[in-house]
Amino acid sequence: MRYNRRYNRGSFFALTSVLILLGSPQSQAQAQSVTIGETAVLSAGDNGNGNLLSAQRAKLAQAATIQSLSFYVTAASGKLILGIYDATGPNGGPGALKAQTNSFTPVTGWNTANVITPVSLTAGAYWLAYLPSSNALRAESDHPILM
Questions:
Q1: CB-based contacts of 74: which residues, under 8 Å, 6+ apart?
Q2: Structural domain spans, the chain
Q3: I need a labelling partner for 49 at 20 to 30 A (CA). Which of 77, 107, 116, 144 fits?
């Protein structure tokens, strides 16, 4: 798999609305949201990634059920797919796809899309990924490196 890897300090992608299951199925109404990844909007622009899977390593501090993925866009164009991979690839890189969104038309600002199938994840390392269809889609990042 070819992917763009981002330094942890340069995260630009946030996983949001993760459902934490507390105890029995009857207590699921007491679930809380957590995030994984960067939720701050960074200052360096990144574009030119049309049809290139870009990924950011992130740590999930506790077990969770993923419900949606969010991504901040500064110039919207084309379509976008978001996903989360485990870290079982070579040298801890992206491995198995755990969840993804359907393709959607992004807008400027935060874009949140439900995953196709919610999935339970254990605490640990993951890769948050985005796949834009257009080179003109622009997101904020810091220190990208091509792998």
A1: 45, 108, 138, 139, 140
A2: 4-134
A3: 116
Q: What is the reported pTM?
A: 0.77
Which DSSP string do the residues of 20-89 spell out, in sequence order?
Answer: EP-SSGGGGGG-EEEEEE--S--SEEE---TT--EEEEEEE-S-EEEEEEEEEESB--S-EEEEEEES-S
Cβ-count burial of 145 within 10 angstroms (0-12 exposed, 13-18 middle, 19+ buried)?
exposed
CB atoms within 10 A of CB 25: 7
Bridge partners (DSSP) of residue 83 are 100, 129
What would the pLDDT profile of 4-53 be if each residue is shown by its tens digit?
A: 544 333 334 544 444 444 444 444 455 677 777 766 665 556 666 778 88
Give every CB contact of residue 91 below 8 A, 6+ residues apart in sequence. Answer: none
Phi, psi of 142 (to 5 degrees): -155, 130
Contact 18, 120 (CB under 8 A): no
Which CATH entry fits the domain spanning 4-134: 1.20.272, 2.60.120, 2.40.70, 3.40.50?
2.60.120
